[in-house]
Amino acid sequence: MLSFFRRNKSKNTETPKSYYPDYWERYAALFDHEPELDLQTSRFVVLDTETTGFDYNIDRVLCIGAVEIVNRQINVSNTFETYIRQERFNEKTVEIHGILKHERIVTFSEDEAIQQFLEYVGNAIIVAHHARFDMTMINEMLKRKGLPVLKNKVLDTVNLYRATRIKSNFIQYDKPYTLDEIAENYILDVSDRHTAAGDALITALIFLKTTAILSNKKKLTLSKMFNL
Amino acid sequence: MKNTIAERIADFLKRFPPFDLVKKSDLLEIAKQVTITYLEKGKVIYEKDSPLQDHFYIIHKGAVVLIKGNYGSSEVIDKFDEGDVFGLRPLFAQENYAITSVTDEESILYGIPIELFRPLAAKNKNIGNYLIESFASHTENPFTKKHHLEFFSESTASVEASSNLFELQPIKYTKKIVTATPNTRIKTIAKIMDEHNIGSVIIEENDLPIGMITDKDLRKKVVTGLHTINESASKIMSSPVLCYPKNITIAQAQISMMKHQIGYLCITEDGTPNSKIVGLVSDHDIVLLQGNSPSVLMKAIQRSNNTKDLKRIRENITLLLRGYIKSNIPLTHTSKIIFELNDATIKRIIERCLEKMKEEPPVKFAWMSLGSQGRKEQLLQTDQDNAIVFENVSPDRLEDVRAYFLKLAKRVNKRLNTVGFEFCNADMMAKNPRWCLSLDEWKAQFTKWTTNTGNDEILLSSIFFDFDISYGDALLTNALAEHTLKITKNNSLFMSKLGTNALRSASPLGFFRQFLVESDGEYKDFFDIKKRGLMPLIDAARLLTLNYQIKTITNTGERFEKLAELVPENKELFLACSYSFKAILKFRTKHGLINNDDGRFIKLETMTKEEKLKLKRCFKTINNVQEYIKMRFNLGHLL
Fold this sequence. Notes:
heterodimer, A: Nucleotidyltransferase, domain 5, B: Jelly Rolls, Beta Polymerase, domain 2, four-stranded antiparallel beta sheet, globular
């Protein structure tokens, strides 16, 4: 049943190649060869989005922040921080992320932001906290442009963190750990919470720590980490 | 383009030399090129004789040790923590690394590209001078010249007190100094001293030290009636001030203090009273640097005013422990002293957190340490397990009162973690609302565990029944202890379950009398001395003390000794248990110290034949006491 749907879906997205803009073709071509999965050498892009709210249909992405990890190092020289002009404005979430509609930050249109992001992310493995939310938000942006969804592999730090916890009946196993909770437990500086880039950095540090624990203590390979 | 991360890194760098001398715009450019590395404890950053990397490091979080020789050597030259810079000098000197650097805790490091920093040092005279001074200040000591050349003078953090060269090390001085002006009233000076809990204030004018007022001056010149508290500071200050340069050695400082019969030295830029004040050295600081005696450490704990100090003191506690184990001091003595020092550390942290709370505690409470600290058996730094019990309050106030204690607990737990008691990974800490309860709630909880007992309840009972009060009202913990005895007395169902549990880890020796090692996981083929050696005895002692209704003794060794006293016919068995327990604990501690971990997992090859024989004798005792429990609680048929 499931596979039937999946096939159907992929057929839909396989529209003639020329239909998509060049930048998408360049991005998509990077996935022609399945890259080797290795915790050391694979490239990871750890990202976070700030949005106008939590409704995938009406709400919009205001900012994408991301950092890159290669060889277990975060390169500050290659971080990504793009603010996006949006018509939708939600007073309620301004309190959280502090992004006003006409703030004096260089902003880009959704179209430009998508191009920049695809170029940045390439075929890296995407890492995010509660990844489904950020992925859906970005995919909705792509859909509005008539583009297919992101092709990258995705790791969720919630799953990674959960797997590091001991199996104990005294810990609620399916707890949806928040970024704050984990940061508190790992004593990470949270002064940049609720800026996309700041949250991406916290997520990246959590990623480095949890994967170190999982690969040393539980001898997990990167490919196994996708199935936690 | 906006770069939030780089901005924040620049903010961090700005706080520490030499970056405090760098222009803001330059700093941001540097920050943009930083690489961030996360390393677990015990990872090599660079190794002796390896080629130069293209960046040096500043520690954002954690600690790093520099060791002589290659990885695996244990000779620590120096230790750095947050904000310290290392690995810079070889980059300037263009030679391979002369030493190895290893993370001493899990750490986050910022790597700073030398290519960006070098031109700044060349361009900015202040930075250049700073570097020259820093590289040079260690050359005065011929013994450490070769190695210390690497570092900044500012960064000579902790000094290995056991080293013979101790007296020749540069002093570590307090940089946060409290000053006042000459026309400040004496009353205000006394208030300042009291507020900061310090024994001296430097009197300054235009950043230059012109006098000093100490406790002694107040005693001799004010309390005696010579001056009133409304007169100005200049009337009673000792002047001129004895000043010394930054790189004064510990020996020099000590001699000067003795010669002039004073307890404080002022550190200035060039060592004369005509240059800027940079710090203060007290006799107390020196004692602290040397401090491996329990009494000195105890005093230092009680006088400490920040968590970082406590962390340093705890490192000295470990040194003390190392010395005790090395010189084969009886474990009873060792564990008592280490317990007292740990206990004092916990008390001091709670005291300080209470001071920082805006309000007084709404009702009486007690902080309970559980697990190994509760049993007074925590020698190496392991996890923290703790809980809070507070006085019963009316239901409408209950949640407010709990909220207060949860807030307190959150602070205490965090600071305990900072000084080295790591967070419990099963969340058995007072900051967890489940373990921050009123006396009645605790009683109900304990009753529930002992009446409706499954495997979880047994496990919880075995952790929470071993509590020891660390702070607060002993009436509360006593009442809880009474309750525990009441609900277990004649509760044969619970006792037999607890008994079965005490037998769950069978003999540590296999059929052929070989050691049973772990069959999978991270510690495959290691011997788990906690699970197989210590836990069976701890469980047995708990079971039997409950059975004999012995109150408030939580220490496993002492429990067996008490049992030997109460049950003369089994005296021999119980004394053997007490002895075996201490022997195994000592063995674990020794291995933990060698491997710089909690000593739980031991590689069989690292044991000598003699050690193996000794352990096997201890394990025989475990067999015997388990047989005894089987008989006494009639458990034979269950197994």
